Amino acid sequence: MAKLSTHQIRELARQIVAQNKGGIRYGDLIEKISAPNVETPINTIHGSIWDLHLRYPQEISKPSRGLYVPSDGTSAVLASAPEPAKTPPKFKEEDFYEPFASWLKNDLDEVTDAAALGGASMGKKWGTPDVVGVYKPLASNLIKFPIEIASAEIKTDPAQPVVAFGQAIAYRLFSTKTYIAMPTSLTLEDQSRLEALCMLFGVGLVLFEPDPAKPSFQIRVRAQKFTPDMFYVNEFAERLKEFDSDKFEQLFR
């Protein structure tokens, strides 16, 4: 195939952006142009499309870093007919608590023990993580260290990233690390903004497939370690012991 001109690259890019109503990331756009046009230098593609939102402001917007989204005024000539939306299967958040607890312990290796709590089961919605894990010294450790608590908030509704973030921040009162888990159906714009917030505030971000049998958890932002307020650490431990003494013993003994 012949080498594309700058004009042809931009026209192709406009079509691709218009076909992706939810937006397309810069790297994916480069790949879609480059893959079928191997004779076109990659640097030429980069130089042609980096400012699409400035060249075609009526058609393309850039709501967050590295994300191109078709504007409301995009020409219908460029846009292809959207495919019928597929209704994802409905699962409860609770269906993902145990899988995430297992992943946090065995795959991410952030904790030595983890347990599912969830919702307002302990009486305080903003003080009850969906999953709690602890990183504690083992009998074989020659040098002991203080127990660290990791908390996670899981949402199956992709329209609740702000709620999830607020709850995860609240868990910082008694947690060394906090995580948010959101479904992959989260829009690219919301994902980009949530990633930026998580990096700013040290909150971990995980994406998962809405299937509890195979959630395929993927780490997007790894949680940073913070020093919690020991008053709230003990307050949380007391509530957990009163609510479920078996889980308290599992985590803290």
Notable characteristics:
253 residues; alpha+beta; Arc Repressor Mutant, subunit A; 3-stranded antiparallel β-sheet; elongated
A few lines on this structure:
This protein is of the alpha+beta class and 253 residues long. It is built from nine helices and nine strands. The chain has two domains: 6-70, Orthogonal Bundle (Arc Repressor Mutant, subunit A), CATH 1.10.10; 93-252, 3-Layer(aba) Sandwich (Rossmann fold).
Element-level helix/strand string? HEHHHEEHEEEHEHEEHH
Widest sheet, order of strands: 4-5-6-7-8-9
Strand content: 15-25%
Distance between the termini: 66 Å
Number of strands: 9
Mean model confidence by pLDDT: 87
CATH class of the largest domain: Alpha Beta
Number of domains: 2
Cα shape: elongated
Can you name the CATH architecture of the largest domain? 3-Layer(aba) Sandwich
Helix content range: 25-40%
- CATH homologous superfamily title of the largest domain: af2093 domain
Which stretches are low in confidence, meaning pLDDT under 50 for 5 or more residues running?
A: 73-86
Count of DSSP-assigned helices: 9
Structural class: alpha+beta
Oligomeric organization of the protein chains: single chain
Note the main sheet.
6 strands, mixed
The CATH topology annotation of the largest domain reads as Rossmann fold
Radius of gyration: 23 Å
